[in-house]
């Protein structure tokens, strides 16, 4: 579904006291002209990602003079981050994770860079599509439903590692790529930093959700080997599943146009996803153009589809932890993501590459 018109609040969001950003960078008592230690650490985190973004931009052959423009991006973004360190109220501040992402995207787009991760997304999607059948068959072979659901959730965590917004992971990825199966096996042991897995599996056993909205995150293994097997299992139970993906490219996040193409490649001529009827699977444009999301600003199409949802899934660190970890909904909700920034691990009191599965059951 195409997005058009102004952005509106997600109808199942409890809007009173809603604040998109999870981690408070500052408090009302802080000096407005002086950056807080939290602001400084996050500004430095974004500064650390500049070299990998510049490298991607330099290699963008759709943009004339890409290397010179990439250098301009690096300089301009670094200058803005320095300005924010001197005066947190500059450039629309005080900064939070949404503003820091917006400023980066804005500079890239102004310099003509529309999708600097396009090539790596295409490569990773092709790789993940070739592995999809094996991952699904492995899940289907698990007879015990509770064990199967746990395996699907572990698959979401493993897929979520493919995140080129994290400087460390971008470096690791450039060096030797990532294996989905190895990632599944190498997850940190439970209990995770937020671990509602048992609670979620118990509720799943009641098969009570009729309509599920899933906010998807990255391309490649994340959406194809993590989210789609999970969505397929929900379809098998008879639920309608709506995958909400970004309107515009941002980092290696999947866009809704790309997701439509991916699913077309995975479905057979009878509209089935490896034997499961996918006529109840919808893909919509979330109206978003960042790797984080403010749920008070989504597309009207998504708002219409979500009005009768009974489960909302926020997947990935940007949408599920850095924003919306404490969002409240008028239906069940699930946040599922891997912790990929030391600053997030510190805030949660967990470890780097720890897992978060936060399940809230709605009670009227």
Characterization of the model:
The structure is a single chain. The protein is an alpha/beta fold. The chain is built from 14 helices and 9 strands. The strands form 2 sheets. It has a 7-stranded mixed β-sheet with strand order 1-9-8-7-2-3-6, sandwiched between helices. Helix 5 (118-140) packs parallel to helix 10 (221-236) and helix 6 (145-159) packs across helix 9 (197-204).
Helix content: 40-55%
Which stretches are poorly predicted, pLDDT < 50 over at least 5 residues?
A: none
Helix/strand class: alpha/beta
Q: Total number of β-strand segments?
A: 9
- Please state roughly what percent of the residues sit in beta strands, choosing from under 5%, 5-15%, 15-25%, 25-35%, 35-45% or over 45%: 5-15%
Q: In which order are the strands of the major sheet placed? A: 1-9-8-7-2-3-6
Rg estimate, integer Å = 20 Å
Helix segment tally: 14
Assign an overall shape.
globular
Rounded mean pLDDT is 94
Following the backbone from N to C, one meets helices and strands in this order, namely HHHHHHHHEHEHEHEEEHEHEHE
N- and C-termini, Cα separation: 31 Å
Report on the biggest sheet.
7 strands, mixed
Keywords: Hydrolase, Kinase, Manganese, Metal-binding, Nickel, Transferase
Pfam family, one: ARMT1-like_dom
Organism: Salvia divinorum
EC number: 2.7.1.33
List keywords for this structure.
14 helices, alpha/beta, 364 residues, single chain, two-stranded antiparallel ribbon
């Amino acid at each position: 579904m195409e997005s058009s018109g102004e952005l509106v609040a997600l109808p199942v969001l409890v809007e009173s006291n809603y604040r998109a950003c999870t981690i408070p960078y500052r408090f009302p008592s802080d000096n407005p002209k002086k950056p807080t230690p939290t602001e400084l650490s996050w500004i430095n985190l974004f500064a650390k990602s500049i070299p990998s973004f510049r490298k991607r931009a330099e290699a963008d052959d759709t943009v004339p003079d890409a290397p010179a423009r990439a250098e301009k991006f690096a300089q301009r973004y670094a200058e803005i981050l320095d300005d924010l360190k001197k005066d947190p109220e500059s450039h629309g501040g005080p900064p939070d994770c949404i503003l820091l992402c917006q400023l980066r995207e804005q500079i890239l787009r102004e310099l003509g860079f529309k999708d600097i991760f396009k090539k790596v997304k295409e490569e990773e999607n092709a790789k993940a599509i070739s592995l999809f059948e094996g991952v699904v068959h492995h899940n289907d072979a698990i007879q015990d439903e509770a064990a199967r659901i746990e395996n699907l959730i572990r698959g979401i965590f493993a897929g979520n590692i493919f995140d080129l917004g994290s400087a460390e992971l971008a470096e690791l990825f450039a060096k030797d790529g990532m294996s989905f199966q190895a990632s599944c096996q190498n997850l940190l042991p439970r209990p995770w930093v937020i671990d509602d897995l048992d609670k979620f599996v118990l509720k799943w056993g009641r098969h009570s959700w009729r309509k599920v909205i899933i906010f998807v995150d990255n391309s490649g293994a994340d959406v194809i080997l993590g989210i789609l097997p999970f969505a397929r299992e929900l379809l098998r139970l008879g639920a309608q599943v709506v995958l909400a993906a970004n309107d515009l490219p941002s980092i290696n996040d999947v866009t809704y146009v790309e997701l439509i193409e991916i699913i077309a490649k995975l479905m057979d001529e009878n509209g089935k996803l490896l034997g499961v009827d996918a006529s109840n699977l919808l893909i919509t444009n979330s109206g978003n153009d960042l790797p984080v999301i403010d749920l008070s600003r989504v597309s009207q199409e998504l708002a219409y589809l979500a009005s009768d949802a009974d489960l909302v899934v926020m997947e990935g660190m940007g949408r599920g932890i850095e924003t919306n970890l404490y969002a409240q909904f008028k239906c069940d909700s699930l946040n599922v993501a891997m912790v990929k920034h030391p600053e997030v691990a510190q805030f949660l009191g967990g470890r780097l590459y720890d897992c978060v599965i936060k399940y809230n059951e709605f009670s009227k």
